[in-house]
Amino acid sequence: MNFSAVCVVLMTIVTAASHSVVTSVKVKRHSSATLPCSESCSGSVKWETIHRPGDFLGHCSPVSCWLKEGYQMSHEKYLTGDLSLTIADADFSKRGLYTCQCDGKELCSVRLLIEVSNTALQLNSGESLVLDLEIPEEVEVIYNSTAAAGPSSGQICTVDGRSLQCKPEYRRRMSSALKLSAVTPSDSGLYTVKDKRNEEVIHTYAVMVESAGGSDKMKDVQPERCTGEGAVVSMWVFGLIMAALLTVIVGLAVAIGLLRRQVQQCRKRTEGNGVEKNGHSVGFFPVDTCTCSCYRGIRISGDDCAAKERNSAVLD
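Now predict its structure.
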């Protein structure tokens, strides 16, 4: 084998390996999904799924494009090498592996995945828990208890079409539509609906079941919300209380200011009130016999009365 033949073989292997690479696209349920493919093709381009070979979803040629309902391709983009296929409403029935071919030769492989749906439910005792069957394939329901007295965790049911198989404790309570009747607080936990064949989680339900009267207890604990006229009245009451508090604070501030002013005046008037007798200071005289009022020895009123009292004491 010469060098040229070896190069051809290697090129073929590399090209095949590059085309065998699978790209994954994950989207939310019921959203649009674009399956990318950027390759040059001057012939006929076709998209199909591996589990339905020959059932083409989109077909473009140099002349025009033909598409099934719910699928989109752009003829203008096809002419420039963008062979992407868009699914308008992606759900679990459309998940799987898609291939794009050019004149029968595979160019791209794309796997479409749907994000897991997560639902939180709060039920009362006696109500029913309904788990959606979103795919026709066989599914299993796995339960993980969050209640202290709840049943053991693990698989509780499997559904294949209309055939339902459940653990003995669930047979009478679970219907083929995955409806669990007469729930109790012990049924609280995480329920997982899983595609059994593909080992793919479809939906999870976080379930909390309240005991009888649980809602009333919650109402007792939660504060009431004021609405309408009640909210207006509450605002008026709050405003009146704040106005009253502000009035009291202003009144106290004024009273304290007046008291300080009187004290300062008293101090000025009492300075130099010592009386001399025979050239000697005899100090301050008590004014208890007058109608004067004092605070810690500082006179704040009755100046004339105190002065007369001291003068009479000196003359005596």
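The radius of gyration is 46 Å.
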